[in-house]
Each structure stands twice: as C-alpha cells, then as structure tokens.
Amino acid sequence: QVQLVESGGGLVQPGGSLRLSCVVSGSIFSINAMGWHRQAPGKQRELVAVITTGATTNYADSVKGRFTISRDNAKNTVYLQMNSLKPEDTAVYYCNVKGSARGQAGTINKLDAWGQGTLVTVSS
Fold first, then answer.
1. Could you say which of 79, 86, 94, 124 has the lowest number of CB atoms within 10 Å?
2. Helices marked H in 33-116 — which ranges?
3. Strand pairing partners for 69?
C-alpha cells in the first residue's frame, strides 16, 4: 500500500501565493517522477507540473513562470509553489507518483498512485 497525503490548498486572492505539499509513504521501492495535476469544474484533469528523480521539470504553458515544482527525495515529498495566482487556477489539485512498489508476495510492481486532492480557490 502506498499513500499520498496532500496539503496546502485553500482560498487566496488573485495575485496571491500558495504552496502545496504531497507526502508519499508506504511500500515504495522507487520513484521515477512526481507531479501535480488539476481538475477545474466541468473540465478534464490536466497536467500542471512534473519533476523526475533527476530534477528534470516540465510545466503546463499556462503556469510557466508562475509555478515551481520541487521535491525532497529523502522525504518522498513533492511541493508546488504557486505565485501570481489567477481565478482560472481554481481547481482541485492532485498529486501523482510514478515508480515501483513492493507487493505482498515480495514482488516489485508498477506504481501509479494519486492523492485525494486539495482544493485551490482563487477569488476576491
């Protein structure tokens, strides 16, 4: 079992900042990439940012220059610093981890897990 616990969402005014955190725990064998996705009301879930173990990052065009993803490999934690927030950033933000996990029979299985989501609301 692998658990992802997100925190840091909330209500913020346009132009404000928030920092999301996601802690991954459980039977992790290795992590290749950690990322954040978001889903606004009535829209499909979309990639916001992703970071690999080697610290390579990729961002959605809509957040480049405003959001920064980082990770602490020792703590299996990924962060999303969000600055200059806009009303269109309002969404539920989900943490995702890809890698491998230990199975009950001692096997190593593919890991692609999601957190429960944290709501970010940008409004005046």
1. 124
2. none
3. 80
The residue to which tokens 């992590």 are assigned: 31
Contact 53, 73 (CB under 8 A): yes
What is the chain's Cα-based Rg?
15
SS3 of residue 27 by DSSP? coil
Task: Report the alpha-carbon distance of residue 39 to residue 36 in Å, rounded.
Answer: 10
Q: How far apart are CA 76 and CA 1, in angstroms?
A: 15
Residues 19, 8: contact at Cβ < 8 Å?
Answer: yes
* β-strand pairing of 118-122 with 10-12: parallel
Distance CA 34, CA 15 (A): 26
Instruction: Locate 47 and state its tokens.
Output: 């990639």
